Amino acid sequence: MRLRDREKAMLDGASGGVRRQAMEHLLTVGRFFDAEDLVPVAQVHLMADTEALGLSGVAWLESIAAQPETERRVIVPTITDPRGTDLAAYRHLKQDEAFVDLERRTIEAFQALGILLTNTCINYQTIFPPVFGEHVAFGDTGSGIYANSVLGARSNYEGGPSALSSALTGLAPRYGFHLPECRRGSTLFHLTDRPSSLSDWGALGGIVGRQMRSYWDVPVIDGVHGSPTSDEMKHFGAALASFGSTVLFHMVGVTPEAPSLDTVFSGTIPAVQPIGRADIDAFYQSYRPTDDQVDVIVFAAPQLSLTELASLARLLDGKRIAEEVALIVCTSPEMKAGADRLGLTRILENAGALLLEGVCFYQMHAREIGQANQWRRLLSNSAKLVNITGGYGYEPSLATMESCVRSAIAGRIVP
Amino acid sequence: MSETVLRGHPGIGPSVSGIALVASDNFSARYDLDLTKGVFSRPGHVLAGQSYVDVILVLNAAKGGVATAWMLRDMKQRGLCPKALLLNAANPIMAQGAAFAGLALIDRFEVDVTQSITTGDRVDVDPVSGTVTVRSELVP
Fold it and tell me: Is B139 or A12 the better-scoring residue by pLDDT?
């Protein structure tokens, strides 16, 4: 790979051992993908929940935090994905103290590195949205696909070690979706029926994602008349990314790199695959519960925006959740503060919901909290969450927000 | 015993040898594995219930989220890790995780790697050259 003088100096250790190590990591990944050079990035979004980090990952972060301040501080704005523990609520969730200890150690290490603990996966809605053409290093699938697709920024999936390396160097290997030629469409879907709820948009993302062959596929969605909302795009993108490991989609006439069908593909337009109501219904059916039992209803993955929190509060205002089920809502610290200020938190909590901030359900040691609370049957309006939690021992089902709320009040799954 | 050499893109990590565990399915550490028991836990995965520890894991494509980039290193340090990953198509997360962990990874083979290796084959993995030597028992 071609390196500029400043990059060579960092690789040689002129800026300390931490930045040298970061450069070595970026070059190893870059060479694997035949990158020709490194590209400066404007901001970094870092995923590092304690389940993913593990004990060794936390210790590794602490070893960096112990270095001299000039060697350990990040050099571009760096923000965090949801944490693994809401320190105000972990006892209620019966989270193990060992996880909480890991969380505190991780927070301390991040602060020593100068990382902003935003603890959110909806940074593109709430913190510092990237702009068209901007190169960034985003480390959550949902934030990466939204930044690339809806905002037109340039990022690959940068998992924790790479995102941190980018934060310490201000650089990322220039391959994949940093390159214009990789951003062309590869498959074509035509929407014959518009999704009518957030869970429908998630189901659509799941349907497309299941058909993606690899990370490098770029699906193009045609037939979307009128722009989806930011929350609809969020659920669609998060599910597509989760089911497909997909980091970029185009929506013809909607997203910035797809003004028309004939501009989004290189060469021949591929055969079109229609997707309609029957396909979305079949997707729900693929997670159909065997009976009406439910233990926990979860609104998360992605964290809820203020508008989603307002919708949920409207549905729960004056209602009461059944004693035998739990209803968990995850949002960012900024949105939680807004919900507090606007009275939404009070409505949700009066109904019996638990509103968590700075976390996401599947990143909270989901297997262990499920076992501790005897939660097995999970209901959510998030297709992404339904996709993930099966591996954690849950039996997840997908439903609309309205159906989830009705089920929470009834204490059993109702349509 | 037959011997076949498969060629992929130059990979990441050290040369290793081991016994293959193969499936035409995809891979994510967070979505698919029980990291405490060392088995595939996702109910719909072809390898559900099988141990992934100390095998040469041969699968189709990297799928799912970004946690694998951290998890591979912790899995390796706890001794609950495959010896190598051979994929038809890795994604950045697998490459970043392998680089962080020092785990052998090769992808982009000239053939479908899941159809060219059989579970139980003895496999030598050389990431520097991007080659995999497969030793299979001849079926009478």
Answer: A12
